[in-house]
Amino acid sequence: MTSIRPLLVMALPAVLAAACASPTPAPKAAPAAPKATASVDSGSGRTESTDPGYEPQSKASDDAGAPKASVAGGAKATAKKKAAAKKAVYNNKMPKNFTRYNAPGAYNVNKLLYPRREIVGVFTKDNSGGTPISRANALGKKIGKKPNMIKTFVNWGGGFDINWAQSVWRNGSIPQFELELRTFDITMRDIAKGEQDDYIRQLAVAIRAANVPVTFSPFHEFNGDWYEWGWCGEYKADYNACKQNPRNTPSDFKGAWKRMHNIFRAMGATNAIWLWQANQIGARPKVPLKPFWPGSSYVDWVGVVGYYQDPAKKWISSFEKIFRPTFVQVRKFTKKPILIPEVGSWVGKRRNTDIKDFLAGVARYPNVIGFIWFNEKKVGTNETDWRIEWSQSSVNTFKASLKKGAFGFNPKHPTWPSGK
């Protein structure tokens, strides 16, 4: 079963730099906007399917600099469930041999990559007044934890808003910039071949000019066929990825990702935290993730998107069934920290149970560093009011569940002595 989310529209001012012919030192001022006319929109496909079953845990081959941490949860979580309920589980510490290049003068994000407490992030649609920051703060007051990550979506050709990023950071939150490619005119292969280098440089220069941590995620849910940049696989030919000509391949994805990463590094934009995010594999169980993996040196965090969908359709509906199979597959080729960059729960009688189950799941996995709740009211097929404040009961349940785990921290002061 598949559901495709309609486009979200969230305009950001186009604040981009003039393209650079070769790597140059970071600019002192915000770059000027280019003449690009691409539209700015946003969205994310959500799909659920029957439970694909658990894959057995195996010793994964460690990437360079990866922490020696296995997938927690499952049998281990069951054995420690009562203890974990009484004592918060903190995330894995940064490995002693961890290294990551940081350009001179750029904000050093290393201390943020292995947070001891959970990230509590949010995406809010601009349909209820205020700003992304004011809406996030208002939600924080209701649930008892101020969101420390705020997401936005921008389509290819759109700008990176330096003022937005700096304002989010001043608020005590990490900006999360989701870059989409909602067009058939530009392919992943084009990007990999260097035909979009000017735009990539402009983004890199703007992010470097902001000089605050930015969680940067291009081409999310690449293992699905509902996006133009996705993988067609063996599914319906009328899906967006299957209409792409030529169709995207895992090699195209890796080539595009590496080229972007290399340009960002050359431009000194090492304040970008690279988030590689897949949709949970239950939606497309025949599509393996490893062929899309660009390598440890090109990724900071692994993202796994998943939703608690309509219970009437009897799709997978627990943390262990939605997320764990993907965790197990990912752990076969990397030990990078895991972020859940999109999650929500269907409205109805099961909502409170879903919230409890999800937050308890995040809390018991030490290599899952947090989540971003998709806090928007949607209308359409397989859509619902995903907002936490759908009901006061949901708010109360969310607030009580957050108290049971090591949730929330100030990104400007992320170090917690002894993990507390």
Automatic annotation (TrEMBL):
SUPFAM superfamilies: (Trans)glycosidases. Residues 1-21 form the signal peptide. It holds the Pfam family Glyco_hydro_26. Belongs to the glycosyl hydrolase 26 family. Coiled coil: none annotated. It comes from Actinocorallia longicatena. The active site is at residues 221, 342. This is GH26 domain-containing protein. PROSITE patterns: GH26, PROKAR_LIPOPROTEIN. The keyword Signal applies. Residues 23-73 are annotated as: Disordered.
